[in-house]
Design goal:
disordered C terminus, five-stranded antiparallel sheet, 41% helix, Beta-Lactamase, 445 residues, binds adenosine-5'-triphosphate, Rossmann fold, alpha/beta
């Protein structure tokens, strides 16, 4: 039976709703004993929701570094909600998982904090998009944007259809990543994926590159050479920058698409093409048609399914997620243990308009990872156009370990509004150690 004023969700509609959200949600009492755990949280804990109840959250989730990163404890200590803190959870026997955590205290009547609720989202890329599409984490798109999520949701159906797909989007928005995902989700996934950048092929070589040639077709053609259409047989041909195709080539591509066949240069025989075409462009094909620069018939043939990938500035909410993903890549490349981005640096990253889209963010994160000597990317590690006036990193320059330790301790105490117990918990040290680090002059603070 439901108790009056029970602050924890019981057998009611709100608990039912919480069960079904994709984010992990759990609630604890003031002793950090789990009183509620939804399905997503139980999945992370690798137990049934009922098995999580009555145990400490530390025990349930098995997080080794939970003392240092406990956002829930901080929220309860400071009696205030904390939103979207990105931390890396380290669990015994599991790979590190970057998560975004929001926490809020639960108050009893009279205003006492009697517990807390925490919501966390897995940012590792093995989250909801992977589950939705069945893709491997590296193929995941790192988005919480409604428009893009809708495209991702439709992707398996689109991929299965074998229709031509036209991807529209600015340079660096991830069009090639999408085309690879379409291939992997399609019936053709066991076949080859062949990418051609139409803008990078010299005009005189384009026909032979795409359709191949027979020996003797021209002076240097000593033996037959297959083109990209033949190489993509039974698979997917990705025609990137299709807007850059010369007008004459457009007719040949149209014919290959319509008749599902082509003739190699210098050949007389027509070769059937069992190829699915995904095309992409950052140009306005509609306008090019109106200006007579692009064939209308090819435009219609390509536009069976059109997907517009939004630029990053229209989905800045994805910046933390993408940053975490890109940091993971850099961590491996530069062999550094960079775990987080400071709130100030993240605010700057989220205020940028990214004319180069995800490719630009990728470069920024790589730059910052190279400069960063610690575990957190700070404002001073960002490229000049983002960091503005901030020049040198406070951590740079010669400092002793004792000075670094003292600064970390002071910052923790100040973050907790002077609450030393909370600072000790965050740092994972005893009160005696904190006192030793801060020195005698702080005894009377
Ligand atoms: N969701 C994502 N997660 C992580 N990295 C991504 C994501 N989308 C794109 N990238 C990275 O951004 C860069 C640009 O992506 P991609 O080449 O797919 O973009 P594009 O739109 O095809 O660009 P272009 O039009 O210039 O060819 C790549 O290095 C890719 O790895």
């Amino acid at each position: 039976m439901k108790r009056p004023h029970d602050p924890f969700p019981g057998d009611d509609a709100s608990a039912f709703a919480l069960e079904n959200v994709a984010d992990a949600v759990f609630a604890v009492d003031s002793d950090f004993i789990v009183r509620y755990c939804n399905l997503a949280a139980a999945e992370i804990a690798r137990c049934a929701p009922a098995e999580a109840l009555g145990r400490t959250c530390r025990e349930v989730f098995g997080v080794k570094n939970c003392r240092n990163v406990c956002v829930l404890r901080q929220s309860m200590d400071e009696a205030r909600p904390i939103a979207n803190r990105i931390v890396t959870l380290k669990r015994t026997g599991c790979p590190d998982v970057p998560v975004s955590i929001s926490a809020a205290p639960i108050w009893a009547m009279g205003g006492t904090v009697v517990g807390g609720v925490q919501v966390f989202r897995d940012l590792s890329g093995s989250g909801f998009v992977s589950r939705l599409t069945g893709l491997q984490p590296q193929d995941d798109f790192g988005t919480c944007d409604a428009q893009l999520s809708e495209i991702v949701r439709m992707l398996p159906q689109i991929a299965q259809s074998d229709s031509t797909v036209l991807l529209l989007g600015e340079s660096g928005t991830g069009k090639e990543i999408f085309s690879r995902a379409i291939h992997k989700l399609s019936q053709r996934h066991a076949g080859p994926f062949v990418a051609v950048n139409c803008g990078a092929l010299p005009e005189q070589l384009m026909e032979s590159e795409l359709f191949g040639y027979k020996s003797g077709a021209f002076t240097d053609a000593r033996k037959d050479k297959p083109g990209r259409f033949a190489l993509a047989e039974t698979g997917t041909l990705f025609l990137d920058e299709i807007g850059d195709l010369p007008y004459a080539m457009q007719a040949k591509i149209l014919r290959a698409l319509q008749e599902r066949a082509f003739e190699p240069l210098g050949g007389v025989e027509t070769i059937p093409a069992d190829v699915r075409v995904v095309a992409a462009t950052n140009r306005d094909l509609g306008r090019m048609v109106a200006e007579g620069a692009f064939r209308q018939d090819l435009y219609y043939r390509l536009s069976v399914v059109v997907l517009r990938i939004p630029p990053l500035r229209e989905r800045l909410g994805d910046v933390p997620l993408l940053t975490e993903r890109l940091l993971g890549r850099c961590r491996m490349a530069v062999s550094k243990n960079i775990g987080t981005v400071s709130p100030e640096a993240m605010a700057r990253l989220m205020a940028h308009d990214y004319p180069g889209n995800i490719r630009e963010l990728e470069n920024i994160i790589e730059y910052a990872s190279i400069l960063c000597q610690g575990t957190t990317i700070e404002l001073c590690h960002l490229p000049e156009q983002l960091r503005g006036e901030v020049s040198d990193c406070p951590a740079r320059g010669a400092r002793t370990m004792a000075q670094i330790r003292e600064q970390a301790a002071r910052e923790a105490v100040s973050r907790h509004g002077g609450n030393r117990n909370a600072a000790c918990r965050e740092l994972g040290i005893s009160k005696d150690t904190l006192r030793r680090i801060l020195g005698r002059r702080d005894e009377d603070d």
